[in-house]
Amino acid sequence: MTVLPPSTLTALLSLRLGEGELQEVLDRLVGIAKDALDGADEVSITLVRDDKPWTAAYTGQLALDADELQYERGYGPCIDAGISGTVLRVDDMRGESRWPDYATVVVPRGVLSSLSVPLPLQTELVGALNCYSREPQAFAASTTAAVELASHVAVAVSNAMSYLDAAALADHMRAAMESRSVIEQAKGIIMAQNRCDAERAFDVLRRASQGRNVKLRDLAHEIVERVAAPPTAGRS
Questions:
Q1: Based on the domain organization, do 50 and 159 belong to the same domain?
Q2: What is the spatial distance between Cα 226 and Cα 220, in angstroms, rounded to a whole number?
Q3: For the chain, how big is the Rg over CA atoms in Å?
Q4: How many structural domains comprise the chain?
Q5: Which one of 21, 22, 155, 231 is most buried, counting C-beta atoms within 10 A?
Q6: Where are the alpha helices (DSSP H) in 19-99?
Q7: Which residues span the domain enclosing 206?
Q8: Could you tell me if 112 and 61 lie in one domain?
Q9: Do residue 124 and residue 223 come from a single domain?
């Protein structure tokens, strides 16, 4: 029996995965998860293939930072949940003993609790749905709903892999990393122009993307290209 509210189920059922649309579906899924899970400030999806993890989608800078601090170490709840198939919940990072060096660096970024739920994938690809909160004890009541949401993420990924061969999947991975790169460049430009931090810059970019109904990566490309364009020569 589902534990998700009707509005969340309606949003999930409205998703349609067509060829080449995996990134868009994952972007929408993390947004749905963030709205549906009590206590979740930011949400991400980690995928791991050939021992190489990457963040396939995320709702905000906090989630991306928390993921990448784990990738730097080669372990952490988001990686370990995907590889082991175990739900991993951290109620208070300030007292976390399983990944103490990760906890030490992520607490100053603002993460005080997290929940990583493995994706039930039957492929060489594994992963996890990750939820992060700025408050301790945020996910004690959200685990069952997060497990159900993870199954929807797994369906999207599995459907994609059913028509993507290894080369095509590698192309998707490269495209995701290229999108990440241009988004980071655009964030840097916004940070410089607005004298704000990375989290605020991402929020500005996300809101502009939604307001203009333009894909986040396309808007990021537009910002970077505008700044990189040579100045127009003045009149003589």
A1: yes
A2: 10
A3: 18
A4: 2
A5: 22
A6: 22-36, 61-73, 77-84
A7: 178-228
A8: yes
A9: no
State the Cα–Cα distance between residues 218 and 50, nearest whole angstrom. Answer: 29
Do 25 and 62 lie in a common domain? yes
Please provide the DSSP assignment of 116-184 as one string: EEE----SS-EEEEEEEESSTT--TTTHHHHHHHHHHHHHHHHHHHHH--HHHHHHHHHHHHHHHHHHH
Name, in order, each residue with C-beta under 8 angstroms of 131's C-beta and a sequence gap of 6 or more. Answer: 33, 37, 39, 40, 42, 43, 114, 115, 116, 117, 138, 139, 142, 146
Check: CB of residue 94 under 8 Å from CB of residue 137: no
The distance from CA 111 to its chain's CA centroid, rounded to whole angstroms, is: 15
Helices (H) and strands (E) in the chain, counts: 9, 5
Give the span between the Cα atoms of 48 and 55, in whole angstroms: 9
**pLDDT tens readout for residues 92-137:** 999 999 999 999 999 999 999 999 999 998 677 899 999 999 999 9
- Please report where in the chains the tokens 């951290």 appear, as a residue: 90
Q: Return the structure tokens found at 105.
A: 């660096």
